[in-house]
Amino acid sequence: MRSAQVAVDPPPGPPTLAPRASTEVPAASSAPAAPESPPAPPAEPAPPSFAEWLRQRLPPGGAVATGDAGAPTVVHTVASTDTALTIAKAYLDLTDVYHAKDLAAEITKRSPALSAGMVIEIPHLLSAPYKTPDEGRLPWPPDRALRGVFITGIYAGGYWPDVLEKLAARGLNAVVLDGKDYMGTVNYPTHVKLALETNAAKDPPIPDFYRAIRFAHDKGIRVIVRIPCFHDPWAAKYATRVGLMSTSGHPFEMGWTDPVNDEAQQYVVDLTREVVDLGADEVQLDYVRFPVYSPGIKYAAMPAADGHRSLAIRDFVRRVHEVTAARHVPLSLDIFGVTATGSSSDIEGLGQNIGVIGAEAEALSPMVYPSHYGAGFMGFEEPGNHPEIVGVGSKAALEKLHAAHVTTTIIRPWLQASAYKSSAFGPKYIEDEIRSAESNGAVGWLMWDPDNNYWAVWRAVPLVAKPSAAPTP
């Protein structure tokens, strides 16, 4: 689980026309000849029809036919080696079913006995071409408030439709999806150089990241792609040149890349560019800080904790923000709760001075989990039982932004969604956290449970729509 409170860790013009040869003598005229108009630019090619769009994506054995209502359908001629599952996998991207196993079950239901030469219709065909990532991207709503939960890549691999269904049924409009796990593995097939070198995306749990995002968009849910930055045991192990080093020049083996290493920074920049290309509605940087707790941490080669670390993080975030801003995609930063309420030494150790880094992103998400405050905080014997703490942290973070004259960045806090160090945890606890955050200046909120078990959230947030009868994985 992430620690939150104790600092532990112009374009060219038309072509010029050549004069035409002529054997005729022009008639006399008192008026000058009208200049010849340049040719009209070529017309934009018409987009392909839905039927043609489907044809361009058919696997072997597939064909486009016309259904009873005149709409295109897709049929498949069964080969001797085909099974319901192989057919489902081949046509999955042309359907509105997320998992191949569910599409296979529907194929089996309609055609229980497949045989070579049989022609079957592919069920659950899309009704129109899907959009490109840029066309499908969802902006922030007018009130800028995103409310949702965090989901790991592995959990999304098995239960993505179920999560989306639960969010949409409650009017929640966002999900934070791990693009890269905090242990360093990448959760989708990536083309980023360092990830390929280290084999960080071996057997990714989300085989088609853009498709996952499209399914969220179909329900009006924005996908915030989380990228843990410098806590990356995988890269630190398999590309030691980007790892944190000791003052003696040897690898400082604690599973971190070096926050001031240019290649380590570029890795995050490249992943950011890739997930934006794949349709991310927002990019969220986590572990965007320096490590602060490890045996012998004083021997790690890092900038002095006197303000230089926050400046280094600010400059790094600017690199990332150049990528997101160019595509009009918001950038958010996860920060420790201590950055709002803690001492300057803790804050500068992390490199997360809100006044320094706050203007470099559209949103800051302080991790104000009540359970992560030490006993005695605000006089509470068991702070984890006091959901009002999230309001304290949110308000303090907002005040620090305003003190630095940063008025466009919003505070969207992380709220606790697990029973960790909280004997009072439950649906009412969730309700109280939300109320505390929103009454203290928060613009939206995000729920965090590393186990993705949001039973209390589903009970606390009232239904606004009846869930569909879509199959649950």
Describe the structure.
Strands 10-9-8-7-6-5-4-12-11 form a nine-stranded parallel beta sheet. It has helices at residues 50-55, 84-91, 100-110, 133-136, 153-169, 193-198, 209-217, 233-238, 262-277, 308-326, 338-341, 344-350, 354-357, 389-403, 427-438, 455-460; strands at 62-66, 72-77, 119-121, 146-151, 174-178, 222-228, 282-286, 331-336, 363-367, 410-411, 414-416, 444-448. The protein has 473 residues and is of the alpha/beta class. The longest helix has 19 residues, at 308-326. The two termini are 26 Å apart. It has 16 helices and twelve strands. Helix 5 links the parallel strand 4 and strand 5.
Features of the shown structure:
3-stranded antiparallel β-sheet, 473 residues, disordered N terminus, 32% helix, alpha/beta, single chain
How many β-strands, per DSSP? 12
Order of helices and strands: HEEHHEHEHEHHEHHEHEHHHEHEEHEH
* CA gyration radius, whole angstroms: 28 Å
Strand content: 5-15%
Q: What would you say about this model in short?
A:
The protein is of the alpha/beta class and 473 residues long. 32% of the residues lie in helices and 12% in strands.
Summarize the helices and strands and which ones pair or pack.
Layout: H1 50-55, E1 62-66, E2 72-77, H2 84-91, H3 100-110, E3 119-121, H4 133-136, E4 146-151, H5 153-169, E5 174-178, H6 193-198, H7 209-217, E6 222-228, H8 233-238, H9 262-277, E7 282-286, H10 308-326, E8 331-336, H11 338-341, H12 344-350, H13 354-357, E9 363-367, H14 389-403, E10 410-411, E11 414-416, H15 427-438, E12 444-448, H16 455-460
Parallel strand pairs: 4-5, 4-12, 5-6, 6-7, 7-8, 8-9, 9-10, 11-12
Antiparallel strand pairs: 1-2, 2-3
Helix pairs in contact: 2-3, 9-10, 14-15
